[in-house]
Design a protein that fits this description.
The protein is of the alpha/beta class and about 425 residues long. It contains 18 helices and 8 strands. The protein binds iron/sulfur cluster (SF4) (2 copies).
Amino acid sequence: MENHQNFSTATLPDLVKFFNEMLNKNDLNNAERISSLLTERFGDHYVAWHIRAIALRLTNQPKEALSAIERSMRLHVTPDSLAELIRIYQSLGFYDQADQLSKNIAKAQELKQPLTIQFQREWNFNAYKNVYFEISGICNGKCPYCVTGINCIIGRNIEDIKARKFVDVDEFKFTITHLIENSIISPSESVVQLYNWGEPLLHPHFEKLLSILTKKGVRYGFSTNCSVLKELSPDVLTHLNNVTFSMSGFSQDSYNRIHGFDFEEVKQNITQMVHLWRKLGYRGSFTIAYHVYQFNILECQSAAKFASDLRIGVSFVHATLNGYNLMRSYFDDTMSREALKKCGSELITYFYKDIKRPENYRCPQFDNLVINEHCELLPCCGVERGMPLYSFGKIADMTLEEIKDKRLKADFCKVCAKIGMDYFGHAILGKKVF
Ligand code: SF4
Ligand code: SF4
């Protein structure tokens, strides 16, 4: 698949066949590449854009998927394209439009349009596609702007820290089985990210957890602070979908200020993980998430070169206040003067004063399923113990409908939206650095 020229004589049905083969293997990266080839070569055919839409949605690019399916439907509308549009609406959280459109599908079916090319995958409309399962509540980072960090600038939330642990392997297995059997997640469409506020590679039975997911056909990903080097067997790498390397700069000085790790060791760990896992067959993505602070802006270029030499991706994001209470204390002016001075001298905050929550903003966290290391359902990634709404209880006691219902009725989310907290983090991370 690396060489597109292999497909220079392939017909449209050939490429559709290859696309379906990639989907069956859960090889979304190559499926996405084939879909791009299809639109390059057969951009005047509705099927090419339909397939492009499927690939973009499955690789978490719902806005781009929407443009692609609209383009397909401008060429030709089929019941399948309407069904795909519904899925994309759901990925974007446009549930009203999705419901409305469901009714139109029946109408389209009445048209009895012959479908010349069928897509093999079975879809599950309602299952959560983006899942965050904290397998290690524990982190060894010293980050001052993180609720888990040893040096958190507003002090540590002791209640939260005390309850943090590694997920129990048997309970993890039980919970994943429950999620699949109750169609809360779908092995073919969901990706389980194995982190939230902890370092997943610290889990003493990390590979056992991966093996559970792999045996059940579930794809997974994780973000790591790269302080630990993990060797993984080829058996579990088949279902690894994405790896993020979180970096706090590109010098020892920057690392001393934030993560507190040996910078050379971090670089070595990243290099080894990329080489080792690629050699063992991993074909998914590696991305450096470079957190931009005032003091490490000039190091961005070196980070970009490092990523380019390794042939991995890099994204530059504004470092932010990681944790509900931390962020709230900044925006409602309850943060101490000392902590505020530190934020002012390290974070890039000049645009914070202009952040305004748009009316009708819908919290994107509603579309994620977030589970902590006690296997409890959380309202979102940002909550901490001690808040009025931290957990809804064990997720293995709930059906899909109960989960959706509990989240819909959560009063705390209304309060959160009222003070704009559901928007701040999103706005900061979404602000382009370069
Ligand atoms: S930002 Fe990441 S590495 Fe730092 S303390 Fe928080 S979870 Fe750990
Ligand atoms: S509204 Fe606030 S508490 Fe509710 S899911 Fe969104 S960010 Fe979390």
